Give the backbone structure.
Amino acid sequence: WFETTGLSTIEAAARACNIVITRKGDTEEYFKDFAFYCEPGSPDSIREAIVKALQAETNPELKDFVSQNYTWEEAAKKTLMAYNKVLK
């Protein structure tokens, strides 16, 4: 199993929706402790994470975190930094 961080997940988080994702891939790097994590091969784990997400209050800190860190401007800065690192 491998999961990339999808735009739909970032968009949902930007609207302060609780998100359920796996720890596979880079998702934990993006969402830290703001997400409800599950094991993709375990229906029980998926069900548990969904139930927790549905029962939990939305977290305005998630919306703020995403709004501050995942803008097009931030993406451009990070891309430029990566190019500069490679070119040095």
Observations:
- Strands lie at 20-22, 36-38.
- Residues 22 and 28 are 8 Å apart (CA to CA).
- The chain has a mean pLDDT of 92.
